[in-house]
From TrEMBL:
Record protein name field: Transporter substrate-binding domain-containing protein
Annotated GO MF terms: ligand-gated monoatomic ion channel activity
Native species: Siculibacillus lacustris
Endoplasmic reticulum found in the keyword field: no
Pfam families reported in the protein's UniProt record: SBP_bac_3
Domain Solute-binding protein family 3/N-terminal: 36-258
Length: 271
């Protein structure tokens, strides 16, 4: 099962801008000049981002990106990337931002800048229902599937460093990792809670359940280092749309869970 790459161009119409930013911006000025916001996004990560039955991008991240472009007064170009390529597309300049379920971590902050949090995710470890797994220590002697370059990968690697016999098998994107689990190649899976819920819903016969929560992470927009004007503008946009409830409504529409803006603020790590 191999996920195709899609580049979705020109979604939405240019609308009047509702976001004001300093005139000294570089990437922000480029976005305004070209009239297009280029967004790196992993479209194989339901319910955050995926393709619907009509082959149209949908999900909480897609609608968030569309709202941002609308408020900037520009069109949107969604650039579909593998999970492991989200940061790379920002650093290389192939995309203006990455809005793709990127947790704000100290490791990533060394490479890119982040906005304040606009969403959150919990990473979990799943296994067969009969498996007596309650902590990372219980993975001793077992193989675990995970998507490369995710916080699931980082947390799993760090937390099992001293656990004997753990074999971590890394896949380049979530669909491939999920397919390996649903096909029976792997019994244990480190992933996000929403992705696990979507996987179980789509495959009700799979013997898999959440065993424990590894950690909850704030999610931010990834931006190239040094783009102060763009970062400040997006931060203000996030504050505005958390306060008016638009970002909360988008999250809850797709995640079937509550989003607490105050909790997001408390989760935001020091920069």
């Amino acid at each position: 099962m191999k996920r195709r790459d899609f580049v979705v161009l020109g979604l939405g119409l240019a609308l009047s801008g509702a976001l004001v930013a300093p005139a000294s911006a570089d990437v922000l000025a480029d976005i305004k000049a070209r009239g297009v916001l280029k967004v790196a996004i992993d479209l194989g990560n339901p319910p955050y981002a995926m393709m619907d039955a009509a082959f149209k991008p949908t999900g909480s991240e897609v609608e968030t990106a569309e709202l941002l472009a609308k408020d900037l007064g520009v069109k949107i170009e969604l650039i579909s990337v593998p999970t492991s390529g989200r940061i790379q597309f920002i650093v290389s300049g192939k995309a203006d931002i990455a809005l793709s379920t990127l947790s704000i971590t100290a490791e990533r902050l060394k490479v890119v800048d982040f906005s304040i949090p606009y969403s959150e995710t919990s990473i979990v470890v799943a296994a067969p229902k009969s498996a007596p797994i309650k902590t990372y220590a219980d993975l001793a002697g077992k193989s675990v599937a995970v998507t490369r370059g995710t916080v699931n990968d980082t947390r799993l690697t760090e937390s099992t460093a001293n656990v004997a016999g753990v074999q971590i098998v890394r896949f380049e994107d979530d669909p491939t990792a999920s397919a390996a689990v649903t096909s029976g190649q792997f019994a244990n899976y480190a992933t996000s809670r929403p992705l696990l819920q979507a996987l179980i819903k789509a495959n009700p016969k799979v013997d898999l359940e959440e065993k424990f929560v590894a950690q909850a992470y704030p999610i931010g927009v990834a931006i190239r280092k040094g783009e102060t004007a763009l970062t400040q503008a997006i931060n203000q946009w996030i504050r505005t749309n958390l306060d008016n409830g638009k970002l909360v409504a988008i999250y809850e529409k797709f995640q079937n869970a509550k989003l607490d803006p105050k909790r997001l603020q408390e989760m935001d790590p020091p920069r």
